[in-house]
């Protein structure tokens, strides 16, 4: 599956990302690839705030955590079982490579008031790399996710593709490029991990339901128009727009 950076390759090609920032972005991408919304929220929370990490462990008050994640206890508990299964491939500075789970394990206190989370030692430094503006691209990547994703209840998303589209349009909007991008059917299939042969299928199963989700749950959305190769739809032009309907609710 293509990553958000892959899909924007033509626009960001001149930018040379440091190895560690490629890895940090791939860490976040691991949760996106698995459509693991609570895992991604936890990753952004750990990366973008003053969460203390000691001996690869971090601890939250459960009531505060579910407020930050915009969820409830049951959904959090069910999601954590999936979170610890998300794997991440890495290559360190010495060229050693392997695979690990960024979030290794979790444990509730006996009174269910606290949740302890154990992080992979390989992932801890990458979470910390995403905290500072020193690595501008990686920091901005994390901040993009906070704009709408961290402020919405992911249970309101009807389409499993909404998270990936939100990240894509947030990146298009935040990087200083044009607000219209053209993607052919093959590129969109690669990004969403689908294999639709007809543009009409891709529109019906991805673009329309995702657009409906974002109109209800995001301050940024998109419009799209097909473009043609002869009489055949080759792909779609996507325009990033402010969601004025949400502002007026």
Structural class determined from secondary elements: alpha+beta
Query: Strand order of the main beta sheet, please?
Result: 1-5-4
Principal-axis shape: globular
Helical percent range? 40-55%
CATH architecture of the largest domain: Orthogonal Bundle
Distance between the termini: 36 Å
Q: N-to-C SSE series?
A: HHHHEHHEEEEHHHEHHEEH
The main sheet comes to: 3 strands, antiparallel
Strand content: 15-25%
CATH level 4 superfamily of the largest domain: Winged helix-like DNA-binding domain superfamily/Winged helix DNA-binding domain
- Rg measurement, Å: 19 Å
How many distinct beta strands? Answer: 8
Give the CATH topology of the largest domain.
Arc Repressor Mutant, subunit A
**CATH structural class of the largest domain:** Mainly Alpha
Q: How many domains in all?
A: 2
Low-confidence stretches: 7-21
The number of distinct helices, counting runs of at least 4 residues, comes to 12
Mean pLDDT value: 78
What do you see in this structure?
The structure is a single chain. The longest helix has 19 residues, at 199-217. Helix 3 packs across helix 7 (121-129). This protein is an alpha+beta fold and 249 residues long. The strands form three sheets. The protein has a three-stranded antiparallel beta sheet with strand order 1-5-4. A three-stranded antiparallel beta sheet has the order 6-8-7. Strands 2-3 form a two-stranded antiparallel sheet. Mean pLDDT is 78; it is low at 7-21. The protein has two domains: 4-151, Arc Repressor Mutant, subunit A; 157-247, Arc Repressor Mutant, subunit A (Orthogonal Bundle), CATH 1.10.10. 48% of the residues lie in helices and 20% in strands. It has helices spanning 4-7, 9-12, 19-33, 37-48, 62-69, 73-83, 121-129, 136-147, 162-174, 185-192, 199-217, 244-247, and strands spanning 57-61, 88-91, 97-100, 103-108, 114-119, 180-184, 220-229, 232-242. The chain is built from twelve helices and eight strands.
């Amino acid at each position: 599956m293509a990553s958000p950076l892959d899909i924007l390759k033509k626009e960001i090609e001149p930018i040379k990302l440091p190895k560690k920032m490629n890895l940090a972005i791939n860490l976040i991408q691991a949760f996106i690839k698995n459509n693991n919304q609570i895992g991604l929220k936890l990753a952004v929370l750990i990366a973008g705030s003053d969460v203390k990490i000691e001996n690869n462990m971090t601890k939250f008050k459960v009531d505060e955590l579910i407020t930050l994640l915009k969820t409830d206890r049951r959904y959090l508990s069910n999601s954590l079982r999936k979170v610890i299964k998300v794997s991440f491939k890495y290559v360190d500075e010495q060229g050693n490579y392997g695979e690990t789970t960024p979030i290794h394990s979790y444990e509730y206190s006996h009174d269910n008031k606290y949740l302890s989370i154990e992080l992979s030692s390989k992932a801890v430094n990458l979470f910390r790399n995403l905290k500072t503006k020193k690595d501008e691209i990686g920091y901005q990547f994390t901040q993009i996710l906070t704009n709408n994703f961290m402020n919405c209840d992911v249970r309101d998303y009807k389409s499993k593709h909404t998270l990936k589209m939100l990240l894509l349009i947030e990146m298009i909007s935040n990087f200083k490029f044009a607000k219209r991008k053209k993607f052919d059917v093959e590129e969109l299939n690669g990004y969403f991990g689908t294999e639709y042969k007809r543009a009409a299928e891709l529109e019906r199963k991805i673009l329309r339901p995702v657009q409906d989700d974002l109109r209800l749950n995001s301050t940024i959305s998109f419009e799209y128009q097909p473009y043609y190769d002869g009489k055949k739809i080759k792909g779609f032009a996507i325009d990033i727009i402010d969601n004025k309907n949400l502002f007026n609710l």
